[in-house]
Amino acid sequence: MRRVCTAILFGLISLSSGGCKRSPTLSESTVTGSILPDANHAIASSAASPADDGNWIMPGKDYASTRFSALGQITPDNIGKLGLVFTFSTATTHGYEAPPLVVNGTMYLITPFPNTLYALDLTKPGAPQKWVFKPEPAAASQGVACCGTVNRGAVYSNGKIIFNTLDGQTIAVDADNGRQIWRTQLGNIQKGETITMAPLVAGGKVLVGNSGGEMGVRGWLAALDEGSGKLVWKAYHTGPDKDVLIGSRFKPFYAADRGTDLGTKTWPPEIWKLGGGPMWGWISYDPETQAIYYGTGNPGPWNADQRPGDNKWTTGVFSRDVNTGEALWFYQTTPHDIYDHDDINESILADIPWGKGRRPVLLRPGRNGFFYVMDRRTGQVLSATSYGHMNGYLGVDLKTGRISINPQKEPKQGRVTRDICPAAPGQKDWNPSAFSPVTGLVYIPHINLCMDMSVSPANYIAGTPFVGADVKMYGGPGGYRGAVTAWDPLANKAVWEIHEELPLWSPALATGGGLVFYGTLDGWFKALDARTGKLVWRFKAGSGIIGQPISYRGPDGRQYIAVVAGVGGWAGGIVDGELDPRDPTAALGFANAVKDLPNKTTPGGMLYVFALPR
Amino acid sequence: MSSPFRASLIIAGAATLMVCGCKREERHSDSNPLAGSVPAGERQPTIYPGGGTPPPLDPRAARYENNAPALAEGQWLYAQMNCVGCHAHGGGGMGPALMDDKWRYGGRIDQIAMTIAEGRPNGMPAWRGRLTDDQIWKLAAYVRSLSGQPSKDAVSSRADEMSNTTPLTLTPRQGPRNADTAGR
Lengths: 614, 184
Description:
The complex is a heterodimer of chains A (614) and B (184). Chain A is mainly β and 614 residues long. Chain A starts with 5 loop residues before the first helix and ends with a strand. Chain B has 184 residues and is mainly α. Chain B has a domain at 57-184: Cytochrome Bc1 Complex, Chain D, domain 2 (Orthogonal Bundle), CATH 1.10.760. The interface between A and B is large, with 38 and 34 residues.
């Protein structure tokens, strides 16, 4: 696990020596990590990952979803001097999953419910508040948010900050003064729909999907016109082809995904209307082909006995034309999902060495525990390799694309199925990986949990949970519940892996200085050496960290690192929701896996920003 | 193994139990309000203008608290109406925990019934018109049992869910706080 592949080592040595020679003064912005187009490892797709301008305008950093900052002032050698520059209280006590955005000297923060948007002036000492926008979402929306009243981020585009509210609105405000430009209601809380994802703006469209896979919603992805907020197209993830926007351009790679109206035929009659398949995670975009890539959420209810069939188009990956929404291909990672293994995780756009040239791929660390390398033109799975402890699945057949389920671990009515790994939150939940085009490695923050599960008939009552399962989670083998794995997507193996006592619920950040940042549920903000995984720096925040760290260049030319602490979400709900761990099924079973957390951290949203001394 | 004498002893014992436990087994065919009221309790965590006296406990409470058929039906409704999806088996999730000693809107059975019927602003749905008053009272009785309030001979020793949850007969009684308890 800890062997370093030679090519990567070579790349890193050249990177670090290059960095030393240029020995940056702090006012100079430097890119240490030279990203060589002929590098013998995965690189980010160039059209989707332009040169770093020092801003951070969307949660994924770029359309390729690298979460990589090319800034290289802060390195493993000097990070010991990294210190706190300023803080800001978000006035919330619920789980904070969003990254700050930085655009030309202004920082933007979007909080969990009530989804307050703050603008901070980075050009002034202490970064004072510039303006605040309060969208006042309906308080009742908190009651239909399955796993915390979180928000996964805002996005900047053409002078606007665009974000979603828990009660199902998409709002655009003027980035200069915080005035509302448009507001569109998309979700309906009476049906259990909320919106927690960060929008993506691509091709003049604002892309937004619904949450509510535990509430019997019917999943969709909508595209709004960026200028007006008006609906351009809406693609459902269950139902007849015309609703799913499946037409003549739809060319799935595997036979199992071909046929007419599979979104109704792979369900019991009418059940697709309550079938889930929401979209609350991450979208990537390839400007060259104008195609978007994203995964769909779990089918509902969790009790799979109630929905025999493959349950299309849930728990799979779509590619669509951003202009029309037309489906281009689909691959169902987990047909007839039985474990709540949503497939909404990030799709990193990379070009990998292939024969004499390069092949455009998606790198997808899946919730079901397989790391998928897929041809993004066709949807073909090139490899699917387990990156953690797994017994619920036996493997993926690359000829048919089909995942093989371990029949001994299949939850059935009338029994408790024990020791299923990975548990319902998967090998990795929503919290995205970072990809360094310098090392060619994917840095995966993930979890190591197993579960007992019993299923029972669920009743559908609109606006209430539609689950039909009792779950109890606990730590997996090895005595750790979280891990950071540096994954080589060419060799399909870990280069290094470090273990965390608590489940990891924060995204990762990789930098050109050769560092990987992430936070822990008990509030440690940590930096690892990207080559070795060695811990080189840490800071204890006031609350657990599930927010995404970013790196930006400040108006003074210095490299900054920023993260918002604030425990919560599914993993931290035991703290911010004051759940009672004596009931092992609390928080859909997650509370049992983090019984110790209330003794280790307290709620509270706070921004922390770090830099090297002047 | 058993003599007729021992059998008659058991029958006599059971008969005594039935007489003593009549409240436990009492069944009702309607839910009209009863006459009379229950004295207010000594704990007064809320301000009651004009003298500090909490309103009397709704007299219907007596029909449901410590009543085994009501608690059993409430337990069934708790699963069927998807209460379990939000509150789990008392530990909470989307909604607050119900097995602890904290009650946002009061832990008296009539207050819980009111919460179920009318909903609460931070996401608790309003069930009036979806459930009968009788069903709401039974649900409220079961919700109180999650924190061990009823007597142990009235609650079910068998849970419907996986065997890891604590049976209600072994659930410790939480002394409610933040609640208008009416001393119960």
